[in-house]
Design a protein that fits this description.
single chain, alpha/beta, three-stranded mixed sheet, about 45% helix
Amino acid sequence: MTLVDYETVDDGRIARIWLNRPETHNAQTRTLLVELDEAFNRAEADDTVRVVILGARGKNFSAGHDLGSEAAVAERQPGPGQHPSFTGNGATRDPIVEKMYLQEWHYYFSNTCRWRDLRKITIAQVQGNAISAGLMLIWACDLIVAADNARFSDVVGVRLGMPGVEYYAHPWEFGPRKAKELLLTGDSLDADEAHRLGMVSKIFPADELADKTLEFARRIAELPTMAALLIKDSVNAASDAMGFSEALRHGFHIHQLGHAHWSAHNDSKAPIALPPEVPDWRTAKATDLARRDQP
């Protein structure tokens, strides 16, 4: 079974890409992300495709990065960016932070930035929970439509002591103060509030989400391809001129600093302060996160 499904409808004008790991609430392994990149590239290379819809099978859009499944753990061993251990002051240390930096830049950051600039109009179709790295996927899309049961959250702050996920678009999507609130508390937004903030374009009944999203995509597919791309490029360029792309890069580096902080805590076996209701991040799985705020 593939982790990402690809199909075209409407005489090939609309491509539908589906995350297909419902048993884990579409938790993202690296294999899934590679297949997703291949699907986006396939749609981009097809001149007939005008609009791409990114959806997900099952109850939830995505529980974020897969942190604990056997498949996910195996993928990270050894992974790219493996270098000999560093030696200094008579001591040898394994460069965990450096390895993680290179891996996350490849799998999580540069991929997402590239999908944001895909030469097609993209629509994220969201039901249930979109948690942490689930937000990265939908934020890379040009438009977001949501089921009336959708919820959006980034819980890496309260779970991992991190400033947010690798693609740090929070202040742009939520607004600065709301971003601080959500990251400091781990709270979630429902579809209505996300719509009021301007993050979500349309809200549809959950049982009509797929059909209504397709209708929405058809309206956009009627626009001449060049006009659609010029609109996308113009808006993206305006965002970049206001500092969006540079803020993303800075946010990624700060995210890696968060990893370095936690690595130091683990090396020294220093206590990790977490709220009592939050399980230890070292044993947490993405499927645990998906059980929060179930609609």
